[in-house]
Predict the 3D structure of the following.
Amino acid sequence: MGSWLDYTINGLIIGNIYALVAVGLALIFGVSHLINFAHGSVYAVGAYVGWACFTYLHLPLPLTALAVIIVCGGLGIAIERIGLRPLAGAPRIAPLLATIGISLVLDQLLQIAFTPDPRALPSPLPNWRISLGGGTIGALDLLIAATGLVSAGVLYFFLRFTKLGWAVRATAQDRDAARQMGVDTDAVNRAVFAIASALGGLSGLLVGMYFNHIDPAMSFQATLKGVVAQVIGGMGNVPGAIAGSLLLGLTESYGVALFGSSYRNLFSFVLLLLILVLRPNGLFASARVTPPEPMTGTFVAPSRVLRIPPWAVGLALAAAVVLPLLPNIAYMLQVMTNAWLMAMLAISLTLVAGTLGQVSLGHAALLLLGAYASALLALDSGWPIWASVPAAGVLTSVIGTALAAPAFRLRSHYVSIATLGIGEIVSLVILNWESLTRGPMGVTNIPPLAIGKLELDSPQAAYWASLAVLVVLALLQSRLLRSHLGRTFRAIRDDDVAARAYGVSLDRYKGIGFAFAGFGAGVSGAIAAHLYSYINNETFTSTVSITALTMVILGGMGNLLGAIVGAVALTALPEMFRGTAEYRMLIYGVVLLLIRFRPQGVLGTV
Amino acid sequence: MSLLEAKGIVRSFGGVHAVAGVDVAIAQGEFLSIIGPNGAGKTTLFNLLSGHDVPDRGSVRFAGREITGWAPERIAGLGLARTYQHGRVLGNLSVRDNILVGAHHRLRAARPRLPGLGALAELVTALIHPPSVVREEAALADEVARIAALFGDRLTPRLEQPAYSLSYANRRRVEIARALALHPRLLLLDEPTAGMNESETAEMTTIIGGLKAEGHTILLIEHKLDLVMRLSDRVIAMDDGQIIAEGPPEAVRANPAVIEAYLGHRELGGEAVA
């Protein structure tokens, strides 16, 4: 029993850490109906500011904490100013993407400033521990618990008894009414972002000390955990976020106790999905209330589409076809082959996110499914490549649609959170299902692309094969868009209530959309597996999902040609500045921020 | 037998009884109007009839089927079409596509209805685009032109424009056109003249009168009593979630409870109550 007490205490401590992140997210969601995807980056910045204060300035802990609070609070104000306020009148998707953009920029800047290597962040606290049951509690554990309790208390006092706190609560309930009563909602937003970010930075510092380890990748994990905790407690519900965090910490801790530490994240994402499907309003909301709509109204920017004349498309295609005939082009071909593979993913995502309006943040999981399906069919079942690649497409389509099905009843933000979770689940299942997937070792010696005896292992052959598959997929998709399905998908995107009232079943049409999109993405992943000859569960991470979304937005949501243009631009451009590969994510981040000036993308939303 | 029959339906939000035990029946070919001050529960009643919301108690029958608790898309499949008080046109779709969405449940291309395999067949049909689908689309295009022509030259020249670019009144017209494309057995119109000026209201009255003459069964929510008096076979007055008067238009208008309900709420609707 002693060990269970240990796991419980450990779960509560981890949960308390999540709470510091989740409370900030909940405050921000409460007043602005925005999931601040940059929150984890602020948390990482907090950890690094702390590291710098300890290492360079040799500051004591209280002064370091103060520095973290000041820097991160200021960062929060900057995020509000750049990511939220200018987008007040923009389509609701814009601020969400802007915070993702800010997050990419901040993470990349951290990597450039501090290198991607992990660093130690030793705790300056005395190293005494109190025995409790079979385990011990140290000074740092107590400090983390105290920080959680004190910040919850201060927050409660602030929201309840100060004038600005009243304004925050009023703004959360009804922004327009608050504004009419003279509340300066911009000031409220600024205050909330500052408080939330200061809390986030502080928790980054404490977590870094707790694990004696910080690295720039901690940012994304923190956002994920904070979002999960918040969904459990109910979006925008501050006490709910704390309870949700503790519950998440406990679930993970018990899960680790039962199955081992590689299952930690799997437990949190399965919990996320369960909550989203069973109680989308969170554990503490009454069941019969209609689900809140964080983003009602038109989700995408209305716009005129930039029509590209067919001769121009034909000309571009002809140029793409003859490109391999140029001399000294091997490296360029490799880059462009990758661009075609990314374009397959992007047209798949633009169908789901743009045409159907379901902004998926887990699309890279489809690449993983396709890559593993084709690689394992070829290696373990001896399938020829010409059969394993399309079979991988079909398998990805079926599995991907089945996995996404629980998200079909969700809307807007919730779809993004659910697909993000589903994407992580796919990667974690691949990691843990060793008997099928070879686990963390990955799959090696995947045979190259071939049609019968004809091996396509030259760069030219791989290039033409990828281009040909892309053209076929794009032609199929353009046919689909011109059929009644294109119209039906867009009807669901614009107003699913009206669509249902006219006989459109959401499950059926979202299913068709995901199935078609899954096939294309699966084929892309399969081809990639045969080109790379080695894959593991981290070959395609959530970063790839975000990259694909950036391409889709750059081209214009739902715009088929736009997605291809976006994929080529964002794959080839960073290569032009060779030796600056580390700036790649910075470029994506800036592109996402530029949607402020052209929310409909380059070629326009369809 | 009634085409639609709702018995004892109740719907509460928190402690508020938005609809508190209402019986409504409408016969084939009848024109029934529901009047009442704002907040009387008219739109909630519509939501309960069309499947957008589920009653806490009571039952709804439509076209001989018990439809309580059915999803709206299934009810639409039985031939119930509705418009919305504030308008729910599909902003990024052209007027033509908006109207075509109304015809969705009639599409042969959208069959078979089997789950799973039916959906796959629908996808394959859409990609192959066989001659039967081409013919169906041509026939629908003619029908869209006919429906648009009902509204004079309001919609016809704008068929290819996105709905978000339309005026408020034109969006309301698109909603009615979309509902007609469903070939409804019952048409639920929620304040079709809201936000329209006098001449536009008169034009809309003529159009709705034309629909009645064609034999459409219509359930109408409307504040403009002029329109209600001219077209209705029967009128129901609601207040506080309950029916306070029911009968021929003139009798309901003269009913003291109805006058009280309007004046008591200092709410005179679009036009003065006689």
